[in-house]
Each structure stands twice: as C-alpha cells, then as structure tokens.
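Hypothesis: this fold can be encoded by more than one sequence.
Test: take the structure tokens below, design a sequence, compare later.
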C-alpha cells in the first residue's frame, strides 16, 4: 500500500468485492481485530440459517474493494459443533481470496494445529500473530520471522487491542500465498491421500482427502464414486493396522510442536496477572460472592446509566405529542399520531438505552475474561437442569431485560442448549415487571412486600429451570457440561466495546423494532375503536370482558385488571399506565408551543446528562443526588378494593409467567424461527394460568381470601 493509496473505510461500497475471512481459535482477539479494522462500518447479523453472530466490514485497500468477514472461533475444521461446521462450510463452498489466520502468540502450539489444517486447504493465507503483549507477559521471546520461514506465508505480529501492527497487517494482505505442505504423514497414508485427491475436483482436495480417510463427514457434496473410494482406502488402511484418524492428528500435533519450538526463542516462567486474580475469583468460597458482585455491578451500571436516557425519550415523546395536539387535527388522527405512532416509535426506541448499556457491560465482561469464570463457577449449579455453566449468564441477564438475554444465548454451544435457555429466559423477572410487582405488593401486602417480590423472583427462576430441564428430557439431551477454556484477563478498549454494543443494539432495533411498533399500533386501535366510544365501551374493554369468566377462577373479576394484560403483551412496563387510564381516567393531551417544546427537550437533555453523571457514584453505592419518587398514590387507593389478597397473588403470578413481551417473542423468532416463538407464547400462557390457579387455591387455603 502506497502513501498515495491509503486505507479507507467506505460504507457505500458495492456488494461485490474480494472476500477475506478471519479464522482462528476462540479468544484469539478476532473480534477486537475486526473492530480495529472496521471503524464505524462494522455490521452484525446472523449467518444464514443459524444463530451464530456474523461480523463483517467493507474496506477499500489500495484501490480494491474488500469484504472482511470474521468466522466464528473454532479449534478445528471437522463439523463437531455448529461453529466448526459453519467455518468449514464457508471455506469450502464460498472460497475466499485470502484467509487471515489469527493466532494467539501466547498459546502457539495449540493455535498452530488449526493453522496446519488451513494450510492443507490450498488457499492463500497470512498469519496475524496477535496478543504479542500477553506472550511477553508470560515470559516468551518470539521470532515471527522464523514462523514465516517455516510456513512460507506472511506473518504479521500485532496487538489488535492497541492498534499496534494493524496497518502493517493490511499492507501485507495482498501478499497472502498458498502455504507449502507442512505435515508429513506415514507413507501408506500419503499414498492413499494422493490416490483419493486425484478423484476430487476441488481446490481443497488434500484436506478433503485427509478428512474422508479419517472417517469424518465433510460439509460438501461429493460424487458417490469419491465416497466409495474413501471407504475402500480407509478399510485398506485399517486392515493394515493403521488408524488413519490417530495418525493424521498425531502428525499435525507433532508438527505444531516443532513449529512452536522454532518460533519461541526463549521462555521464562512468570506469574501473570491472570494467575494472581484467579486465586481469588476461582476460590471455592470467595468465587461465588465475587461473581454475584460482578453481575450486580453490571446490572447497576446498565440501569443507572440507561434510566436517565429512557426518561429523556419519554420527555421527547411528550413534547412531540404536545406539538401534534397543538396542530388542532381531527381527534382520531391526533390520537393516532400522538398515542399510536409517536407512542409506538417511542416504545421501540426506549429499548435502545437499556440494550446499549447492557451490551456495553456484557461486551466488557465477555472480552475481559470474566464471563468465562462466571460460567465455570455456576457449572455445578446449572447441571441440576442439565445445562452448561455458561447458561447461567443469559438467565441472569433476563432479570434486567429478556430481549438481550435471548440474544445472549449465542454464547452457548449447540442449538438444543440455546433453545432450552431461550425458553427459560422469559420466566426471569425483568425490570419492567418489577414496577408492577412493587405497586401490587405495596397495596395488598404492605408488611410483606419485600418477601412477596423476592418470592416472585424465585418462582420465575424455578419455572424457567424446570422448563429447560423438561425440554432437555423431551429431546433426549443429557448433561452438557464439559471442559471450559479460561482465557487470560484482558482490558478491552472503550472503542471496541462501544462499537460492538452499538452494532448489536442496532441489529436488535432493525430486527425487533417492526413487530413492536405494529403491536403498539394494534393496541391503540383497540383502545380507540369504535370511533367516539368511551374506554369502557371500546373494543379493548370488550375483549377484556370476554376474559372475565375464565379469570374468575383465579379470583380476578375486574375487567380493568384483565384489560391491562393486553398491552402488557406489548411491553410489561405499560401495565401500570394502562391501569391508571382504566381506573383514574385519561385527560386529553395538552397542546404545546414549538418554543416551549424545545425548552422542555433542552431541559430533559440536561437532566439526562446530570443523571448520567449522578450514576457514577450510584454505581459504587456511594451517596448521590437521585431519589426514587413514590409513584401511584391515587392508583393504589383505586386498586385496593378490586382484589382480595389471594386474587392479588394469582394476578402477580400470572403477570410473571404469561406470554413474554412482543420484543422477546421477536427475539425468539429471529433466533429459532416462527414455530418456537408460537410455542413460547402458547406454552407460557398455559403455564401462567396453571400456576396462578395453584397460587390462588393455596392462598385461599391459608386464609388469603
């Protein structure tokens, strides 16, 4: 790359262009590297037909257009996991112009096993020798030029998290060449590979021949004649006492060991920062409390910093609605614009601050190495439900918001585990439901409010774990615990976590925003039709009254309580607002002048900025300015006579467990398809009704009527 043709990042590049893929083991810094390369051009989505993250960017290098794609982390190319299958399928069926093999400089021998696999695929390649700083911290002295000489491909040492060596890597991108043959197998295997490779019409014929002789399935359609020849040659080797799989793998590991010895010119055992921290974090007694403290800080960070901006969005909605009312439009059109459209868009956008800060916290914990330790600590507990330890992370996130919790199931290996956890997540008590729980507990159980809310949290987690366990039993899946890799602790850069958090938030808004908006508009129609009717005579009220005979068995008779469950399907946080409208009446929207509206927006923005500053001491539990307002005084009085204590408990149990909000259903649909979204909706309605009925009967038995 010359000075006259600098690297540029161009969002408007056409779709066609050279394909460059990044391949490497998990925890080698591939995501950090693509963030460093992509700038604001990073795109997050799913691979077609999968729930695996697809990170991609479009670049222009030396006048050429490049599509840079980060393939999932993998230890091999044999499809034993969805990620490995995806990597092998993409390389074989969508041949890239160049492979960037990202290698952890501090774990050379293990990483070079994948490098040797890639070298046998017959594709141009260069090696990104990443995490050089961590290798030096471990006491290693490395000679990247030695690895370049041995492999015959360019090798670029770098520290992607600090942008060190990234430009040099791009300058060498066009120098990628097909590696020389690296592994020498026993003569009988080499002979069989040569004979079989001649029959395969594919550039990766040598790797395919080795995989077939090992008895592995390959993600590529091959002629029946080739498969028959592979079976014949495999049997011939077996009859000669040669286990092709073991011989091939042993030869690769032996060569990886030789390469590592050639590159590591000196080593000095040092106690790393990771070793020192893990003495405390993985301690049998201290590990659990430290993990809970870390998750508590993540939640406090999310809600302390997002709350001011959610309030700002609410204030912005009020101003826009005021401007609509000031236009003196026909009543129905004014209501549609102010309550339906602005309210609907606001509902969608109001998810963004919570998701963004939650994704920030998650990205920091994930890239720092903390989440891997959390999964390790929780592994034994999660085994009771037949789940791996990492499943604890989405469940914990569900207490904040079910939507990102469903998306975070991508950290699990295997579709069944992801599905089981996603079905359990909606039973976790999200913060939106907490608002309703707090209100009802204060009205009906003023002396036991804390225990009632705490019991609901426990009930939700119990039902969720039982759901995951039952799905595992129904599918015939056993315990899925296994070995875990604990990466070293790393301090991710702010730029990396912000880019990743924003890309994932944007991906959510694009995928789930439409269904949420449509659902909000549908509820608005129910509330405002037929035209001119009062709330009690609206389609909304009529639909609620249709549910009365069924819910009478749960001790719930008031149509206003039942009606609040309808918009609660859109978002649980609107239940309290709907109850307020139903019980206290709705005042017509107030008109607002343009200048006065701008002043309110400026004031709300200033309050949001002050709230963000105030969140810093709040995060650490220090004294701060904000105080929680006591809300719902008039509504409490109105609610008090509408339910018995037994009915209140059954209403809370139903609200905890019934169909998740439309955003959660949209997330399940995006991740697992329409069938499982419909299953979640129906299953959770049935569970909610059954559990609420049981709670009501028990409450009556113990004198709660």
């Amino acid at each position: 790359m010359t000075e006259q043709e600098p690297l540029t990042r161009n969002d408007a590049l056409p779709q066609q262009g050279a394909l460059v893929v990044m391949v490497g083991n998990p925890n080698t810094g591939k995501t950090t590297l693509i963030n460093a390369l992509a700038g604001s051009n990073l795109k997050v989505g799913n691979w077609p037909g999968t729930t695996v993250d697809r990170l991609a960017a479009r670049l222009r290098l030396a006048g050429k257009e490049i599509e840079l794609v980060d393939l999932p982390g993998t230890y091999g190319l044999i499809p034993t996991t969805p990620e490995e299958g995806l990597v092998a399928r993409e390389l074989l069926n969508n041949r890239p112009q160049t492979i960037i093999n990202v290698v952890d400089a501090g774990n050379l021998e293990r990483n070079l096993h994948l490098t040797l696999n890639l070298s046998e695929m017959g594709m141009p390649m260069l090696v990104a020798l990443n995490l050089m700083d961590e290798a030096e911290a471990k006491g290693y002295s490395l000679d990247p030029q030695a690895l370049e000489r041995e492999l015959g491909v360019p090798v670029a040492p770098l520290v992607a998290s600090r942008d060190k060596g990234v430009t040099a890597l791009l300058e060498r991108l066009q120098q990628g060449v097909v590696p020389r043959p690296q592994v020498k197998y026993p003569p009988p295997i080499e002979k069989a590979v040569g004979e079989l490779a001649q029959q395969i019409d594919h550039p990766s014929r040598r790797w395919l021949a080795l995989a077939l002789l090992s008895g592995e399935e390959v993600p590529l359609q091959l002629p029946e004649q080739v498969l028959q020849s592979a079976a014949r040659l495999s049997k011939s080797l077996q009859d000669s006492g040669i286990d092709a799989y073991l011989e091939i793998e042993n030869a690769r590991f032996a060569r990886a060991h030789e390469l590592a010895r050639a590159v590591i010119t000196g080593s000095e055992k040092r106690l790393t920062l990771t070793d020192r921290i893990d003495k405390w974090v993985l301690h049998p007694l201290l590990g659990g409390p430290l993990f809970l403290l870390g998750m508590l800080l993540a939640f406090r960070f999310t809600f302390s910093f997002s709350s001011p901006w959610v309030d700002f969005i609410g204030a912005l909605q009020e101003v826009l609605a005021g401007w609509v009312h000031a236009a003196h439009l026909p009543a129905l059109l004014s209501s549609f614009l102010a309550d339906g459209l602005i309210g609907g868009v606001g509902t969608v956008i109001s998810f963004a601050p919570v998701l963004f800060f939650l994704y920030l916290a998650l990205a920091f914990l994930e890239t720092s190495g903390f989440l891997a330790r959390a999964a390790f600590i929780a592994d034994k507990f999660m085994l009771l439900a037949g789940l791996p330890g990492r499943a604890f992370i989405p469940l914990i996130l569900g207490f904040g918001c079910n939507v990102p919790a469903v998306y975070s199931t991508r950290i699990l290996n295997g579709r069944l585990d992801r599905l089981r956890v996603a079905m359990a997540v909606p039973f976790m008590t999200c913060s939106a439901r907490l608002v309703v729980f707090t209100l009802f507990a204060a009205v009906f159980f003023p002396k036991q409010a804390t225990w009632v809310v705490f019991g609901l949290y426990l009930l939700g987690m119990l039902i969720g774990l039982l759901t995951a366990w039952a799905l595992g039993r129904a599918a015939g899946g056993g315990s899925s615990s296994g070995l875990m890799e604990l990466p070293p602790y790393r301090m991710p850069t702010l730029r990396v976590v912000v880019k990743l958090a924003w890309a994932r938030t944007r991906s959510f808004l694009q995928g789930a925003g439409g269904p949420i908006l449509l659902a909000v508009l549908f509820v608005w129609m129910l509330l405002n039709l037929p035209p001119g009717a009062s709330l009690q005579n609206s389609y909304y009220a009529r639909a609620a009254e249709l549910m009365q005979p069924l819910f009478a068995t749960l001790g719930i008779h008031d149509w206003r309580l039942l009606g609040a469950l309808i918009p609660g399907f859109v978002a649980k946080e609107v239940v309290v607002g709907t109850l307020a409208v139903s019980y206290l009446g709705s005042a017509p929207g107030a008109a607002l002048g343009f200048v006065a509206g701008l002043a309110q927006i400026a004031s709300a923005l200033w309050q949001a900025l002050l709230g963000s500053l105030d969140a810093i001491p709040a995060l650490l539990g220090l004294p701060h300015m904000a105080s929680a307002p006591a809300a719902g005084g008039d509504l409490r009085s109105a609610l008090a006579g509408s339910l018995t204590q037994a009915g209140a408990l059954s209403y809370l149990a139903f609200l905890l467990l019934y169909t998740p909000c439309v955003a959660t259903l949209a997330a399940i649909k995006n991740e697992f398809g329409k069938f499982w979204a419909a299953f979640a909706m129906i299953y959770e309605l049935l569970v909610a009704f059954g559990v609420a009925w049981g709670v009501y009967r028990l409450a009556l038995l113990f004198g709660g009527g």
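The longest strand covers residues 53-61. The chain has two domains: 8-175, 289-475+492-701.
Hypothesis status: open.
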